[in-house]
Amino acid sequence: MSSSVGPTATPPPAGSRTGAARAPQNKGWVSGMVLFAGVLMLVGGVLEVFRGIMAIAEDDVFVTTPRYVFRFDLTSWGWIHLVIGALIALVGFFVIKGAAWARITGIFLVSLGLIGNFLDLPYYPLWSLVVIALDVFVIWALAVYRED
Q1: pLDDT tens track of the chain, all 148 residues?
Q2: How far is CA 125 from CA 62, 64, 77, 117, in A?
Q3: Residue 83 lies in a domain
Q4: Count of structural domains, the chain
Q5: Is the pTM of this model over 0.90?
């Protein structure tokens, strides 16, 4: 008398896909996160362009810090934000379209934007902190995505 408690087959090798039901659930969630990251890149890049224009046109909108180690002229910061923001928005568009190269480029550009916002922290502190937090999320969402 033998009783069968479970399947007697050997488990599949590590790294192989077994359940077809697991893949769509994971893919849908990650794809949604990448789409959301692409939209954040697009909108955040446009807002960075506007921030750059504000710094170029009106230096007195921002707080000035006289003894800041990474002090640049606000017009220089404006051009930095304008260029990086335009590139992030452009790459964000291609992330939304599903281009694989855009995810890698997006991680690089958003990282540059994060560093720029950190260095620009004394000039526009609250906005810089919000953008830094969003940039960390975008980098994470683009880094964990895996195509099937």
Answers
A1: 555 555 555 555 555 555 444 444 444 444 788 899 999 999 999 999 998 898 888 766 666 666 666 667 778 888 999 999 999 999 999 999 888 899 999 999 999 999 988 988 887 889 889 999 999 999 999 998 877 6
A2: 10, 11, 14, 9
A3: yes
A4: 1
A5: no
Residue with tokens 């526009």, as numbered in its chain? 124
Distance CA 34, CA 50 (A): 24
Domain assignment present for residue 116? The answer is: yes
Q: Cα(145)–Cα(140) distance, rounded to whole angstroms?
A: 9
Start-end of H helices in 98-124: 100-119
Residue 29 lies in a domain: no
The CA angle 50-85-102, to the nearest 5 degrees, is 145
For residue 76, how many C-alpha atoms fall within 13 Å in the half-sphere facing its CB?
7
Domain range for 125: 41-144
Handedness of CA 62, 63, 67, 69 (dihedral sign): negative
